[in-house]
């Protein structure tokens, strides 16, 4: 991580920062307090978050008497379940961590009274330097339960080498992928040209939602945390996706689309901006031939003629409420972690969006991207376009929502194994797409 200007001054300021309220510190260098953390920022050795934890421990943590230990890493979709298990206190589950990354729905499921309210530890002046929408995304009943560390959105990541051959043969270019109409048309042409699906989608329900909103669907959520299946605009948005799925033009990813792009099963993946952390420099095909990935990152498609929407996703940091000393220690770590230049370094290494005002502008001049730098530059160019031209929309926060989505995706993966063959045999495409809608409607 690059050297920081005025590092000594910033470190000194942190050492004398006690809390947002200016109370006497409960921390003692001679009797250090230990914090455990679960996070989602890479399970590989030397993940960016793990390296930051190590840096904190040997600097500010050592000076103030706080040591942070990573005791768990997993996906955001799984951590919520693990937290509920840990909270139950069973003998065969991990102990509840002091700090953890999660979605707001998972946080509230733990009980708001069991979590630290970051308002108690950060002043309004401090919070004013963070993107307001990112702060509100972590709020529940007036409490700031999730502190923003990074935010992601969804965009299109393409195997540039494979797409170039497709483009030369068909005339389809990257510009054609700017709209949903052009995206699905390109997917059909790619399938006709190659016999393979064009794109693997990690979160198809979110793509359907945003497309429906852009078309003027209005509110389509129900009280039980699912969707109003009588909403005609929402259904048509679903059917646009489902017709493409039924013909094999697109697929629901096995788990994360980067794997299928890297093995040549598809030429592009629609998923989180943070997925760039898991892309290789090369594509390795089933016959073991390889070629450069030449990763091209594009904004998420939008509905032609409509105001573009983008998902505002990504977890933040929660602190489980135990002692005031641990709460202060957690606030010290979070304050250090989200310091402006450090946060910029962190997101630039991981494919996320920075959380402080003005930090996005600084990315334009950033020169310390990891290799391959061209891929990261492409990513942040796409993110910059979306930040300027798209309206961010928070994800649903119903308790149990992600469990229902997981059931839906498992069902779609089963259907996509048979639907394309039936379509090729002459069955009606709309009828096949209706089978996916029936699956969707069965989830309550």
TrEMBL record:
<keyword id="KW-0732">Signal</keyword>
<protein>
    <submittedName>
        <fullName>Extracellular solute-binding protein</fullName>
    </submittedName>
</protein>
<dbReference type="InterPro" id="IPR006059">
    <property type="entry name" value="SBP"/>
</dbReference>
<feature type="signal peptide">
    <location>
        <begin position="1"/>
        <end position="21"/>
    </location>
</feature>
<dbReference type="InterPro" id="IPR050490">
    <property type="entry name" value="Bact_solute-bd_prot1"/>
</dbReference>
<dbReference type="Pfam" id="PF13416">
    <property type="entry name" value="SBP_bac_8"/>
</dbReference>
